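The pair is quoted verbatim underneath.

:::
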Amino acid sequence: MLLVVDQVYKSYGALKVTQGVSFSVNGGETLGILGPNGAGKTTLFNLISGDVRPESGSIRFLGQELGGVAPHLRCRAGIGRSYQVPHPFGNMSVFENLVTAACFGGQLSEKKAWALAAEILEKTGLQDHANKASGGLTLLNRKRLELARALATKPKLLLLDEIAGGLTEHEAHELVDELKRIKAEGVTMIWIEHVVHALMSIADRLLVINFGEKLAEGEPNAVMNDPDVQRVYMGIEA
């Protein structure tokens, strides 16, 4: 297993955000995560990336227990992530953003970082925007840059937090096509998303959480046909 999350708990005062969540991800797999707003999805990513620490439970990556490992060291170990709201270095160009990620996250020399940045620009459709200031990009291209910066760290595991959120249907399809190419290269992904049709087109398995607890997990069509999932997530009475 590439990643094993075992009985993880996290609370903020009386608010219980994750309550004994457990799951695992194999190398090369894409796991989709669904759940209502406030279900604890992003907190789960924060626990994996090290932005917050669990109160109890275990998170293991490539067999290593991550408790106490700083976020930048988790990135260098191979955990890359995008954030729901992109925050690039706005006064830097798209290319400079990627070189920075490759040098500091991927630990590459500047020469190798330049080569990787050029490759990722083409892979993510940003080559025509390489020298533009990141702060002036459209939403689609900011989302692409968020993905590109994560890829520049050379991740073994890619955490995607609502990367299709706010996009038009056509834009979401473009992004999914890019993610399919990344998946074909063997990158393992965990993708939180509310755009269900986008998630269903690429996920090997779905995990649904509600009020910080696992509600369902398994093959995508089976999960979406689960009466509890339809009731909680889609508002359909069983």
